[in-house]
């Protein structure tokens, strides 16, 4: 019988609301923009901090900070801390914090939750520059986890290439979810990569350490891999952030919207589309109050913040039709409706406030022909 262990987490009563989004590539994906949007809205709706951390792409390179920040500015997602903004926990860069990840790995190796694998030449497949295939990690072939600490360190000192793997126990963990309260997640027994051969952390491990070192109070999760953080938090006795599980993006066919060799997954593909159209498309009503109108209209950033309601978020996958974003007639219709609404609000604001109390304003106010 497997034990279910409870992880410690802050009650949040006196803790500053802080959310960290890590962006790893120059070309932001729709999934990445969606996560950034939810991080931003939750932070703003709760008078918290929205923090940008630059990650590392599949080629081991850091994205250009100015380009990423300009892209977020284009969508109105202003940061409180980050590489260009600065802050008390600088540097906000994975590549500049490699020693921090290495130190955490040493602790995990010491307590037996991680081990060094020296068969990486046989198990690690580099990215094919032509086919652009995702790097594949095969199982450890030589039972490297059975090596003693002294054997492992000796091989490291001899300069043998290696990766570091996490030994995930097969059991369930309790964690706190902002929508569902206290929840549990059972993780299958598996060995997951923590550090690649170039000593760069994998995405979930970088998120784990960054959430702790940047004092994140909440974490927006959209993938099952995000929950691989739980064993690390337990082993190191770190305070667990509250999870916000928004589910992942999927195409109408049900397949994942992968970034590898798929132009439809990148924001740049929709460069001709109005920014609010993209944000409203990715939000799809999840996170807005249920009393909000269901008309085909665009919500501004300020309206999204004012109407934000975390209870309307669920962890089901969001099925999307990316071709709807690329239809010019739909973009024009949505933008035209928003401009008309803004003009109505501007005109109504010119009237006396007492007169407005007797009016029942709605977004479906009839237009004069």
UniProtKB/TrEMBL annotation:
Write down the InterPro entries for this protein, in alphabetical order.
Glu/Gln-tRNA-synth_Ib_cat-dom (IPR020058), GluQ/Sye (IPR049940), Rossmann-like_a/b/a_fold (IPR014729)
The keyword Cell division is annotated on this UniProt entry: no
GO MF annotation list = ATP binding; glutamate-tRNA ligase activity
Q: Mind telling me what this protein is named?
A: Bm14742
Q: Which UniProt keywords apply?
A: Aminoacyl-tRNA synthetase, ATP-binding, Ligase, Nucleotide-binding, Protein biosynthesis
Q: Name one GO cellular component term.
A: mitochondrion
Name the protein family.
Belongs to the class-I aminoacyl-tRNA synthetase family.
Pfam families per the UniProt record, alphabetical: tRNA-synt_1c
Annotated coiled-coil positions are none
Q: Which one GO biological process term can you cite for this protein?
A: glutamyl-tRNA aminoacylation
On whether Nucleotide-binding is a keyword of this UniProt record, the answer is yes
Annotated Glutamyl/glutaminyl-tRNA synthetase class Ib catalytic domain ranges read 32-320
Protein species of origin: Brugia malayi (Filarial nematode worm)
């Amino acid at each position: 019988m497997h034990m279910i262990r409870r992880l410690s987490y802050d009650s949040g009563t006196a803790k500053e609301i802080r959310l960290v989004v890590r962006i790893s590539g120059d070309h932001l994906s729709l999934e990445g923009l969606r996560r950034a949007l939810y991080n931003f809205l939750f932070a703003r709706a709760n008078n918290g901090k929205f923090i940008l951390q630059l990650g590392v792409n599949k080629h081991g390179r850091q994205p250009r900070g100015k380009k990423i920040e300009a892209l977020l500015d284009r969508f109105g997602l202003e940061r409180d801390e980050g590489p260009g903004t600065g802050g008390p926990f600088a540097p906000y860069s994975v590549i500049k914090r490699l020693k921090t990840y290495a130190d955490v790995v040493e602790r995990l190796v010491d307590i037996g939750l991680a081990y060094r694998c020296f068969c990486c030449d046989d198990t690690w497949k580099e990215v094919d520059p032509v086919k652009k295939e995702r790097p594949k990690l095969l199982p450890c072939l030589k039972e490297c986890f059975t090596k003693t600490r002294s054997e492992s360190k000796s091989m490291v000192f001899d300069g043998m290439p290696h990766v570091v793997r996490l030994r995930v126990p097969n059991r369930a963990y309790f964690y706190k979810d902002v929508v569902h309260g206290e929840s549990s997640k059972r993780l299958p027994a598996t060995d997951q990569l923590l550090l690649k051969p170039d000593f760069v952390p994998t995405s979930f491990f970088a998120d784990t350490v960054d959430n702790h070192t940047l004092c994140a109070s909440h974490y927006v999760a959209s993938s099952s891999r995000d929950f691989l953080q739980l064993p690390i938090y337990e082993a190191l006795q770190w305070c667990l952030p509250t999870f916000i599980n928004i589910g992942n993006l999927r195409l109408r066919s049900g397949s994942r919207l992968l970034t590898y060799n798929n132009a439809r997954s990148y924001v740049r593909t929709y460069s001709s589309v109005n920014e609010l159209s993209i944000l409203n498309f990715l939000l799809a009503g999840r996170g807005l109050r249920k009393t909000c109108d269901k008309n085909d209209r665009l919500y501004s950033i300020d309206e999204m913040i004012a109407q934000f309601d975390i209870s309307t978020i669920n962890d089901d996958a969001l099925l999307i039709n990316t071709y709807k974003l690329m239809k010019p007639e739909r973009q024009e219709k949505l933008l035209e409706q928003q401009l008309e609404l803004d003009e109505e609000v501007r005109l109504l604001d010119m009237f006396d406030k007492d007169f407005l109390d007797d009016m029942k304003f709605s977004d479906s106010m009839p237009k004069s022909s």
